[in-house]
Design brief:
The chain has 156 residues and is of the alpha+beta class. It has one domain: Electron Transport, Fmn-binding Protein, Chain A (Pnp Oxidase, Chain A, Roll), CATH 2.30.110.10. It is built from 4 helices and 8 strands; from the N terminus they run ααβββαββαβββ. The chain has a 6-stranded antiparallel barrel.
Length: 156
């Protein structure tokens, strides 16, 4: 698994495209694992700070409890409707919750209230993908990265 800055160093073009899609909209969708192993989809907001991808959660929200129990997640950037669709990005891995003084330091550096009653998670990334159209808008271009195989591209 990798931090966002490690992916930027290893796959700068893919990381830039993913970041563009992730920053295009405030709201994203995150999938977590329920206690019974089934998926849960929740809305969230995510941000980049100090070489990492972060998101928060209200205190004791079900997505926070899911991530505390099983850190696996998948985050989707969201996208616009056709015909204006330009692409989207997906990030998957494990969430690390920051607590205590480290949480307060990161929140303060981000300009958020470190005293607020909330959770803060950092993405430990196992997979990153970007789906876009070719210049002719006739095929999907799917680029993906994992630590094991690096960047791959597929056209469909």
């Amino acid at each position: 698994m990798a931090s966002w800055s490690e992916i930027e160093a290893e796959a700068p073009e893919l990381a830039a495209a993913a970041k563009r899609h992730l920053e295009a909209r405030k709201h994203k969708t995150i999938a977590t694992m329920r206690r019974d192993g089934s998926p849960r989809i929740s809305g969230t907001e995510a941000t980049f700070h100090d070489g990492d991808l972060w998101w928060g959660s209200m205190a004791n929200a079900v997505k926070a409890r899911d991530l505390q129990r099983d850190g696996r997640f998948a985050l989707h950037s969201g996208s616009e409707d056709p015909p204006g669709w330009t692409g989207d990005a997906k990030v998957a891995g494990r969430a690390e919750e920051l607590t205590g003084e480290r949480r307060a330091q990161v929140l303060e550096a981000m300009g958020s209230d470190p005293e607020g009653d909330s959770h803060l998670f950092r993405a430990d990334i196992a997979e990153l993908s970007v789906v876009e159209l070719n210049d002719e808008r006739t095929k999907l271009i799917i680029r993906s990265w994992t630590p094991e195989r690096g960047v791959r591209q597929l056209e469909r």
